[in-house]
Amino acid sequence: MSGNRNDKVWKNLGTRRISKLRMADYPNADDIVRQGLLSTPRAEEAVDIVLVNPPTPDGGLWIRTQHRVGRRTRENMVWPQVSLAQMSALLHPTYKVKIIDANAERMRWLEFSTLLDKYQPRYYLTQLTAPTLENDMYGCFLAKARGATTIAFGTHVTPMPRETLRPYPVLDIALVGEPDLTLRDLLDHLEDKIDERPPEIRKLFAADPTYEIAIDENGEVDMQRIKGICWRNGDKIVLNLPRPFIPDLDDLPIPMHELLPLDKYRMPLIKGPFTFIVTSRGCPAGCIFCIKHVSYQYGTRLRTPKLLVEEMWQLKKLGIHNIHMYADLFTVNRDQVVELCRLMIKEKMNIKWTCNSRVDYVDEEMLNLMAEAGNWLISWGIESGNEQILKHARKGIYPDRAEKALTWARKAGIKNWGYFIIGLPGETENTIRQTIDFSKKLPLDIALFHVAAPHPGTPFFFEVVKEGWFRPGARWEQVDMDKETVLDYPGLPAERLLCWQRRAFREWALRPGPIMTYLKMLVSDPSTLRTAVNVGLQHLSWASTDTDLSLK
User: I want to staple 327 with a disulfide (CB 3.0 to 4.6 A). Which of 244, 280, 525, 532 is the partner?
Assistant: First the structure.
């Protein structure tokens, strides 16, 4: 950090206090530690901040998604960390940044710690998710031991910042809510670089009429005035006022995709690498289980199609020809989708792309236009085949609408990827059977069945707490959707939920149509061989579990 102005801040955020006895013997112990860690000569490769997707517990078999959860995935996806690329673009060139996507690189902890030694970051930023919480904190531990100030963001820390910092002293600061501008503001204050903000960054801050520089009358940083953070003030944990959302997403710079290991990102049925383009933030739907509302709530902010196409051209120059339109709900605004598709057709983008949607946010004309513009697959949140389950979950759609939307897409030449949830409130073995039978009727190319996950901050989470449905002794790492579950319903315990989930997939997949899809996965890209084999063997091996639990 520059100068001595932030020594007091560093002490508040810094290393854990030694015992009272040793502090008495060495009253300047904090300063000694600081000088030893932060005054090491800076190497040429040294950076101001590393933005990290850390190694995984098993060395790369876990896959982390961008905004949802870190989980073991049957489909062996490797998701692009575009959120880190977006924040890097906000910091560059004022700060020297480095992205480490250890997950995509299949990097183990020893190699990761060696990179931390190489880059000597002053700041360490990571995403936290419930199923990978302790694993993510280990990355913070390694960075903290090397003198870095540790910062976290994400859907786990946003709804419960104090509860996240309290048991993990290696975490210094949490970015609560939308993290992009908060990170820039925090570093500008701690590094005394507010005056170095370029005009486009100043414009972002000017969009908030309540924004103020957090410098007190003595010229020191007043941490309590930096909006959107939770931080340590000595032994206290302080939660500051929230930061308003960025009103116009077009004011954000295009993410620095070039900092990501683009050649490592994979998705089934895609030959070669792909990446994300974020088209909007927020979703107006009211699904009680959706973790995305924790960060972006129920309003929607769009990026203009012209800017999206500009980003696509940049990606094509980087050798990317496959894109996933990443949004809480891609089809949330029909005008945006139609204009984007027409622009892609006009400019002959020749990009193959995928997206997500709800079945009640499409029509036949729009789907035909999407297909003409290069859309070849849509991920649908179908969830259940039972109307009462959907109604309780505030999904707002009914099974007949799903069948109609997927039929339109299939007719347009778009593949359908359906997601179903086992274990939403009100679920019984009869309703699960209804969902399985419904999934077989739909024109789906791929279907996945997850166990409901009560993520902190969602209405589903609070309902589970109120009704006492959390399994005794449950840990955050069990909020997994595939591997484990924290749910224990009366008459439908965790073991049976997991068993039904596995049986649902097996029943759907072991039919001629789905089997042909997985054969296509084998030949689409050599990297998907492991995916198809793992999926098949894993689910076939679960048959004995079903027999043991007497599922019929």
Answer: 280
